[in-house]
Design a protein that fits this description.
- The protein is α/β, with parallel strands linked by helices.
- It is built from 15 helices and 20 strands.
- It has helices spanning about 20, 55-60, 60-70, 85-90, 105-110, 145-165, 185-190, 205-220, 255-265, 285-300, 350-360, 395-410, 420-425, 430-440, 505-520; strands spanning about 10, 30-35, 45-50, 75-80, 95-100, 115, 130-135, 135-140, 195-200, 225-230, 265-270, 305-310, 315, 330-335, 370, 380, 385-390, 445-450, 455, 480.
- The radius of gyration is 24 Å and the shape is globular.
């Protein structure tokens, strides 16, 4: 990944464990002794590497103090397997979600951690993928999750570096001064909550059903989260206009049976309206519905605490989505776009399209920071996927997105835009406006990139870089599949390129595909 790695040790020579020695691996001579490190802020991340008992480190006050200094300096901190013992002894786990070798669960709990363990104590086959809590990354199965763990550490380090450079985001009080955000107690951390909202477009009843059922089935502590389906005003029966390419004809509405099935899963419905200025514009439902959901949550009983998760209906949750709990100082969690496409390349000047979008949103070009597109790994100026976000509703990001898009998208992305990218720029204008709106609304230090297991595009699995490719569907937290016909477990053939699926999840997907298809066919 191009990082410089410095090895520090409590000992002058690190002897190999039995496993390493049996494979002919030599002893390691560290470049640094832990006690000689004066300024930990010269690094971006502190990693406790895989090991056995860690006796020397646990007994070394300088090593434990180095962990505390890294935390205090705002570095990313990570551990593999039993290395979480060092974090526990240093007091770095209080109120933090984490994982580690199950033999030491009592140590983690005594340190105030929220431990995510596993049942298969011998094989660790059900150990969770890397657990990310703000700047903390803890990981199990170091060989199996090697690529995912390294990528999670990279992302956490980038997030931590950005957070160190700014004050982050805080709610603004009546006086105009930032309100303090005190640290949460362990009980408060365990009680943190999410609100999920998505646009319910015509023809996507099956996807909406599967989305809600997946969160109820696999969401862990968030399984009972509030879920809101945003239904557009207009049409023969008050149903959504179909401004997204590929949806059912305009004027159709979800059937009563579909809404009843969603209601049985505890899904609320609320309405939104696409402004006349962008009616019929590609994907105009997304900013309109998102803004309405944000206003609903910001003005309701969940204001001031819950993060609003805005997602497309083709999302499935397969694990507890812990990273959507925004850490202190953050107002946004995002994933970059899947492909570069119309993105503004990091090594290029902004073209007239991006200049116009940034100007319309009131964002300076220099506010853009660099991200890597998910599949083709292109360095781009900030370009988040509009189908999967977590925001603090009181920050007003989604409302501002809607206003800027409605006022300026037709001018910035005309129907007869120049060049071969013209049509694509119109289709993805909502996403370009989202990027510029976020940069105009939030400092970089308030934005957090999510790790690779979120918004994973199943329909593009075959294009995934080998070192990051999911080895099992169960290893991912939240996935997208693009279209109901490609739903995993359904009758379509697109699932052939997906990761392997275990028997239990496979049966769940097959049942859910059949149930969701009945909702669509029964419209």
């Amino acid at each position: 990944m191009g990082w410089r790695v410095d090895l520090a040790s409590a000992l002058p020579l690190v002897e190999p464990c039995a496993w390493a020695a049996g494979r002919g691996l030599p002893a390691l001579e560290p470049g640094l002794r832990i006690g000689d490190i004066d300024d930990i802020s010269a690094w971006d991340v502190l990693v406790i590497l895989p090991g056995q008992a860690y006796d020397a480190i646990l007994a070394d006050p300088a090593a434990l103090d180095l962990v505390r200094k890294a935390e205090a300096a705002g570095l990313a901190v990570a551990s593999f397997c039993r290395g979480a013992r060092v974090l526990a002894r240093a007091g770095a786990l209080e109120g933090r979600h984490m994982t580690g070798h199950a033999d030491y669960e009592a140590e983690y709990l005594a340190a105030g951690a929220i431990y995510h363990g596993y049942r298969d104590r011998a094989g660790k086959s059900d150990a969770p993928p890397p657990v990310v809590d703000g700047n903390l990354v803890t990981s199990m199965r170091s060989n199996y999750y090697r690529g995912q763990a390294c990528e999670a550490i990279r992302v956490a380090a980038e997030n931590a570096r950005a957070a160190r450079k700014g004050r982050g985001w805080a709610a603004i009080g009546a006086s105009g001064a930032p309100l303090p955000r005190p640290a949460l107690s362990l009980a408060e951390r365990k009680a943190e909550r999410l609100v999920l909202a998505f646009p319910l477009l015509a023809g996507e009843e099956g996807a909406a059903y599967a989305l809600a059922k997946s969160l109820r089935s696999f969401g862990g502590a968030f399984a009972d989260s509030r879920i809101i389906a945003m239904v557009g005003k207009g049409g023969d029966e008050g149903g959504p206009r179909a401004s997204q390419p590929g949806t059912a004809p305009s004027g159709t509405a979800p059937s009563g049976a579909a809404l009843a099935e969603l209601g049985a899963l505890g899904v609320e419905t609320a309405s939104y309206e696409v402004p006349a200025e962008v009616e019929g514009f590609p994907l105009a439902d997304f900013p309109a519905a998102a803004a309405a959901a944000e206003a609903l949550v910001a003005g309701g009983p969940d204001s001031g605490g819950a993060a609003l998760v805005w997602t497309a209906p083709d999302t499935l949750f397969l694990r507890e989505p812990l990273e959507l709990l925004l850490p202190r100082g953050a107002a946004l969690a995002f994933r970059p776009v899947h492909h570069a496409l119309i993105g503004w390349r990091a090594d290029a000047e902004a073209d007239e399209y991006w200049k116009a979008v940034y100007e319309a949103c009131g964002s300076p070009l220099e506010a853009a920071f660099t991200v890597l597109s998910t599949m083709d790994r292109e360095p781009l100026h900030f370009y988040p996927n509009a189908g999967f976000l977590a925001v603090r509703p009181e920050a007003g990001v989604l409302g501002r997105w809607q206003r800027s898009f409605a006022a300026h998208a037709p001018r910035c992305a005309p129907e007869t835009g120049p060049g071969p990218l013209g049509p694509r720029r119109r289709i993805f204008a909502h996403q370009a406006f989202l990027a510029a709106t976020i940069l105009a609304t939030l400092p970089r230090s308030a934005s957090r990139e999510l790790s690779f297991g979120y918004n994973y595009p199943l329909h593009l699995h075959g294009e995934c870089p080998q070192h990051l490719m999911a080895r099992a569907l169960e290893d991912l937290t939240a996935v997208r599949y693009d279209d109901w016909q490609a739903f995993p477990g359904g009758a379509g053939d697109a699932k052939a390129a997906m990761p392997p699926v275990g028997e239990g999840l496979g049966a769940w997907l097959a049942r859910t595909a059949a149930e969701g298809s009945r909702l669509v066919s029964g419209r």
